[in-house]
Structures are given as structure tokens and as C-alpha cells.
Amino acid sequence: MLFGEIVDGVVKLNEMGEIVREEWERTAIVRPNVELGEYVIMPNHVHGILVFVDDMVGATRRVAPTNTTTLQSGSLGAVMAQFKSIVTKWINGLQNVTGRPVWQRNYYEHIIRNEREMDRIHRYIESNPSMWAEDDENPNNIRGA
Question: Per-residue pLDDT tens for 119-130?
Fold first, then answer.
């Protein structure tokens, strides 16, 4: 529950959650090939849609590579690695520690192929806080344990 809590179906971010929010929103500013779609910062994870707007690299090359030492600049893998690294440094600085992990090693990715799917995922992200009591990521949910 590093980033905040859910109160009456609404996310209440703490200081570390605000760091995540600020860096997520900066993503589209510092990376001109990326636009932000719907996102939500949950108490212990993040859901978000990133839209890659350039035509230089096809969607099949935007997936996370298996060898992280050769991340293609501007790829999903590079964007996520940079985002996670910056947030980790900010949060560790806030806690006056170094090297403490904030994120799991990888992330879940899914290529959205059409508007219908985009709408479905958008609704899922938007409704995630109101579904927190049943969420498998909620440590207070007995089913998720």
C-alpha cells in the first residue's frame, strides 16, 4: 500500500503516490512519441494506457525486449524502465534510502487493437478504485490472498 488508499471507492494518494502521478503525467511531456490514455494509481500498482503516436517503429517492436540492455529508444520497454527508475529514485530519496525496490521486475503489457477494446480497457481502469474490495491486488481481499 505504498501509494495511498481507497476511501469510498476513490483513490487518495499519499506523497509517494503523488510522485508516481507527477512522473506518469510527465511521460507525455518528455516523450513526444507518447500520449497518455486513461490511468489510475492504485495503492500498490498502476494501470495506464500509453499511446505511441509515431510511425517510425511498428507495434510489434514496441513490446518489452527480453534483453533489457538493448532497449530501443522510445519503445514501451524504454519508457517503462525510465518511469520506474525515476519514481524509484524519488521515493527512495523521500525515504532517505538507496536501492530499495518499489516495483516488480516486469510489467503487464497488452496491445490495444481497436476502439472497442480501448473503450473496454478505459472502463476497466476507470472503475478499478470502486472494485478495490474485490481486487486480487488488494491484500485485504481474502480471495486474492
Answer: 999 999 999 999
- The owner of cell 532497449 is 71
Three-state DSSP class for 114?
Answer: coil
Q: Does residue 50 sit in helix, strand or coil?
A: strand
Element (H, E) at 7: strand 4-7
DSSP 53-113: --SSS-GGGSSPPS-GGGPPTTSHHHHHHHHHHHHHHHHHHHTT-SS---S-SS-------
CA quadruple 7, 4, 35, 81: dihedral sign:
negative
Dist. CA 104–CA 46, nearest whole Å = 11
Contact 53, 24 (CB under 8 A): no
Give the whole-angstrom CA distance, residue 135 versus residue 41. 14
CB 112 within 8 A of CB 121: yes
Residue 98 has pLDDT above 60, yes or no: yes
Residue with cell 507495434: 59
pLDDT tens figures, 38-48: 999 999 999 99
